[in-house]
Amino acid sequence: MAIVEGWLPASRENWETLTFWWQFYAILASFQWLVSWYGMGKTSVESKFNIPGRIAWITMEAPGFITLLYIMTTLPIQHGITDLPWQNKVLASLFVMHYIYRAILFPFLQPSMSPIHVAVWSGAVVFQFCNATAIGGWLAAYGPTTQLQWDAQGFSVARFSVGLVIFYVGLIGNYFSDEELREIRRSETRRQGKLKQQGKTIHKHYEVPQNGLFKYMLFPHYFMEWIEWTGYWIAGGLAFTPARAFLLNEFVAMLPRAVAGGKWYKEKFGEEKIKGKYVIVPGVY
């Protein structure tokens, strides 16, 4: 039973329309270059439209994997597909795995989370729905749904395996980069606790991450997520256009945030503290 007739799950016509326009989301995301403000994290501001960090994060990230799971369980039935190829199931599982971490585990592992402006929250919800609909529709019914169709697209176990390895390298690198940032926050929480016990004034303290990939760049968690979704696209193949669009959209949406964050680090700590570190792409920028 469809939740929204023609859209959840999407009909082929609506899916094709969304998938076509979804490739141009990067144009919308590029408008971030024109503003210095971003409604979450280091550049967030006080606002009555802010949502508490954990609540906002869970509710804006979870629609992605929930939508994809719903599509994977309903759309094949609508199209008389009784069993999808293992490739479709693996790719769907990888997507869900990523977002189980990002949407559910990540916010509870964080010692603290900055509030998120409702404008950012709304944009993220729309992004998750569109992205999950594009990828889910391809995996559930509108991409290859038999082994013969996969073979016709030039499928090879070697390419799929290489894609999986790259995906997991990105996923693991992303996790450990997040963990380094969490450890800094845990240390800061302990420091503030001691000062509070001593009756001293507490001032928020920032520091430049130095361990792991942070030795070489300021935003390895962004970079490793790009690696992750590059592997995902490689595994699915060139014909997996929603995965290509996802990778491009992630790149265009995250790059201006990293550039703004790099400027923040420079202003906060000075050139010497971040000397020798790339902002986000090793050897390039």
UniProtKB/TrEMBL annotation:
One Gene Ontology molecular-function label: 3-oxo-5-alpha-steroid 4-dehydrogenase activity
Major location category of this protein: membrane
Membrane topology field: Multi-pass membrane protein
Membrane-spanning ranges: 20-39, 51-71, 91-109, 116-140, 160-177
GO cellular component entries: membrane
Subcellular location: Membrane
UniProt keyword terms in alphabetical order: Membrane, Transmembrane, Transmembrane helix
Keyword match Isomerase: no
GO biological process, one term: steroid metabolic process
The 3-oxo-5-alpha-steroid 4-dehydrogenase C-terminal domain, residue ranges: 116-285
Family in the record: Belongs to the steroid 5-alpha reductase family.
Name of the protein in question: 3-oxo-5-alpha-steroid 4-dehydrogenase C-terminal domain-containing protein
Native species: Xylaria hypoxylon
Organism placement in taxonomy: Eukaryota, Fungi, Dikarya, Ascomycota, Pezizomycotina
